[in-house]
Structures are given as C-alpha cells and as structure tokens.
From TrEMBL:
Organism: Streptomyces virginiae (Streptomyces cinnamonensis)
Domain of life: Bacteria
Protein's name in the database: NADPH-dependent FMN reductase-like domain-containing protein
Domain NADPH-dependent FMN reductase-like: 4-152
Residues of the full protein shown: 24 to 216 of 235
Amino acid sequence: TSLRALVLSGSSRSGSVNVRLAALVTAMVREAGAVAEPVTLRDFPMPPYDGDAEAGEGLPEGALALCRRIEAAQALIIASPEYNASVPGVLKNAVDWVSRYRLQPFKDKQTLLVSASPSMVGGNRGLWALRVPLEHLGARVYPDMFSLAGAHHAFAEDGALTDQGLAERLTATIGSFLDLVEADTRYLCLQRR
Ligand code: FNR
C-alpha cells in the first residue's frame, strides 16, 4: 500500500514515553507496508490561540504546516500523555488552531489514539478527553484505543515492548486500523471516478 500515516506525539520532551510509543507505532506501521512520519508539536511551533492574532495575521506558520501535514496523510495517529485527567493544553491548542483552517483537515480523517503514562491507567482518560474535540470536528476516531500503563518500565533497549501480549495487541490494533483506512481510501477513490 502507499498509505501515509502522520504519527503526532503530544509530548515533545527528550525521554518522553509518548515519543517512544510514537516511534514504536511508526515502526509497526512501516512493518505493515505503509508510510509513517513521526512528528512532535515542536515541529509546529504556534502561540496560544488568540482571536486578534488570527484576525490580523491569520494562522501561525506552525499551525499551517500542521494542517498541510494532516491533509497529506490518509491516517492520523496521535500518541499523547494525559495531563490532569485530560488533554495536554499544548495539544488542545494545536487542535484549536487547526480547526480554524479551511477546509478543516480533521474532517473525515481516520484517526487512531494511543497514550503512555507511568500510571496504572496508561493515560486513557486523556484519550477520552481528546476524542471529544476530534469527533466534534468530524474525525473518524477509531473505536479501539491503546494505553500503555507503567510506561517508564515498559520498553526494552531497542524500543520494543517487553510484554509480548501487549506488543501483540498494539500490532493487531494498528493492523486493523490500517485495514480500515485502506478500505476507506479505496472507497473514496471509487467515488471520485
Ligand atoms: C502529568 N502526569 C499524569 N499522568 C497520568 O497518568 N494522569 C494524569 O492526570 C497526569 N497529570 C499530569 C499533569 C501534568 C501537568 C504533568 C506534567 C504530568 C504524568 C505524565 O503521565 C508523565 O509525566 C508522562 O511521562 C508524560 O508523558 P511524556 O512526556 O513522558 O510523553
């Protein structure tokens, strides 16, 4: 396939467990034969949303660049930490800026949500909170999500998950998500003929 997946991490810090999870997901997507591009929000610098700035200068360059990358991908995969049981503000800010772009690029975008956290819940509440704005914007958020608990001790040296069962579940989730994206993309191509 020539499916293109954008793998966006909601944390950019060095040593981020979500950047590590995004790297593993990227490797799995490539293993499945698709193109995967890992990025973080640091690749798309943007100020806090400000309606006056938008009215004056329009969208900041970083937000425009992120819009174009989402547009160019058939699949969006977001790996995000949970902050205070919700979406990190920086990620919500990026969603808000992107939502102002026309045509709004989250619309109909096949999207998979994953999270990692040192906690026992794996940041899953953050993903439920992230679902709300994404589904509001018309993204097709995949029903299944993957949350990695105890993430500080979950990775081997080579970036794989040490728990074989978890690794298999993540591989299966990505596989069935990509199958859906491929079927959806083929359907859209047929419709455009
Ligand atoms: C956290 N963390 C956290 N973890 C969690 O499981 N539930 C939570 O509600 C929160 N809340 C929270 C708020 C803030 C402001 C910070 C900075 C952190 C801990 C968080 O999961 C941990 O720092 C992860 O390592 C962050 O992800 P990255 O940066 O490693 O990808």
